[in-house]
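Review form for a predicted model. The reviewer records the input and the model, then writes brief findings.
Reviewer: anonymous (R2)
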Amino acid sequence: MKQRALILDGSFAVKPIHDALSTKYDVFTIGGDRNSFFAVNAPARHYLIDYSDHTKIEKYVRLKDFSEIIPGCTDISLNTFAFINENFRQIVKKTITKQKFAAFCKYCDVQTPDLLANPTSKDLPVIVKPDDSFSGRGVSVVRRLAELEPAIKYASINSETNSYVIQRFIEGSLNSFSAFRCGNEIKIVHVREKNREGTFGVASSYCFNPEPNLSAKIMDIAGKFLNNEVKKLNFIHVQYICFENNPYPIELFLRCPGDLY
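Model under review:
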């Protein structure tokens, strides 16, 4: 009899995770959307419960019956995972927002775009974003000081916590990498990401092979993040801006990305 695993998501985006786990586990999913992929296609193994509601999960799902509980492809899912799994709570709290991730980068000696509290004309251009991740919504590039206040309001209303960050704008290609610990080695999958036209949301992604110098810099960053002193990790997914062949991480995810690459 297979052990049971629970994925904290029911969308199509977690299908690759589900399929990989199915080789070893009897896999269940959870989510309140009755039209989600697994609610429709595998209802007998899907809990129709909002996975952000910790109280309902604890009331209706016997978590002790699962040998593994895995976050899905959203930050809400990751927050629930941290609530359930005390072992990951501290590292999630230290990386879940953009401000906290910037501090984490400094702690790990990794260069990231500077945060600016009160930018002046000399600091322009800057980029203003919701502090909590929000799928590219609420993001503006500010090239004139007159644009700053509207950009702050736009970021704030697209933030679940009504918070924002201002960072130095680095213009370059948007890339990401997934890094896995494999024994004593680190394996990396490099991904090029393309924004939807006129937006900061990712429309498509595909694997690529970076030139050796960039690849070495990514490996150094991956090692620092995976071997950080807060919590040793086995998997990370990092978005970064590549400028003059230097990677500047902008977000770190302790969950699998939604891309089906």
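Findings: DSSP finds eight helices and twelve strands in the chain.
Further findings: The helical segments are 15-21, 37-41, 54-60, 75-84, 86-95, 98-107, 148-157, 212-226.
Recommendation: see findings above.
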